């Protein structure tokens, strides 16, 4: 059985950085599931058709990282049929040997509820806005408004809302450097293996 690490949390919490580092450390495959929703939103047109027709080329678009693509993703991600169209791909990805790390909003709760390791990565709103603003060269105050707007939509939607699984381990990266956050995550996985 392949080993699955499920990582969820709000935008810019550090979950992507932790996911990439865990995949490298353990030699696992990594899927940033947010890309699936960003690429679906960026295709335009009917989002359900876009999700069903998603191809590797869509996931390679360089414009997917923008704040606008994040907002568009969060809007189409509330549509149950869009989410349903993306499940099979995520399950196939998670079934790869020797293991996989998936990060997103509903990995521990919906996509991989049986994952032996579930992490829920958080950070204060201000820290997350400052990080994302630095990454994108944007204004931190405007970023704070955008992130809160997106988190609210992701948490309040009926379909697979953002929330920790009951058995998720919480990692708060507000006062942690990158290396410290990665070490904390590796320690959780080591305990479960
Ligand atoms: O993680 P990222 O910021 O790239 O995700 C973009 C948007 O995609 C999120 O705000 C959320 O609405 C949606 N998403 C989701 N479920 C996931 C991953 C992302 O609904 N597993």
What this model shows, in words?
- InterPro entries: Cytidylate_kin (IPR003136), Cytidylate_kinase_dom (IPR011994), P-loop_NTPase (IPR027417).
- Residues 5-40, 63-189 form the Cytidylate kinase domain.
- Pfam families: Cytidylate_kin.
- The chain is α/β, with parallel strands linked by helices and 193 residues long.
- It has 10 helices and 5 strands.
- A 5-stranded parallel β-sheet has the order 2-3-1-4-5, with helices on both faces.
- The model has no long low-confidence stretch (mean pLDDT 97).
- Cytidine-5'-monophosphate (C5P) is lined by residues 11, 33-34, 37-38, 70, 73-74, 77, 104-107, 150, 154.
- Cytidine-5'-monophosphate (C5P) binds next to helix 2, helix 5 and helix 9.
Query: Roughly how many Å is the radius of gyration?
Result: 16 Å
Content-based structural category:
alpha/beta
Number of separate helices: 10
Intertermini distance: 12 Å
Query: Would you tell me the overall average pLDDT?
Result: 97
- The proportion of residues in beta strands is 5-15%
**Strand adjacency order, main sheet:** 2-3-1-4-5
Q: Give the % helix.
A: 40-55%
How would a crystallographer describe the biggest sheet? 5 strands, parallel
Low-pLDDT sequence parts: none
The ligands bound in this entry are: cytidine-5'-monophosphate
Q: Spell the H/E element sequence.
A: EHEHHHHHEHEHHEH
Please state the overall shape, judged from the principal axes of the Cα atoms: globular
Counted beta strands: 5
GO molecular function: kinase activity
Domain Cytidylate kinase: 5-40, 63-189
Organism: Paracoccus spongiarum
Family: Belongs to the cytidylate kinase family. Type 1 subfamily.
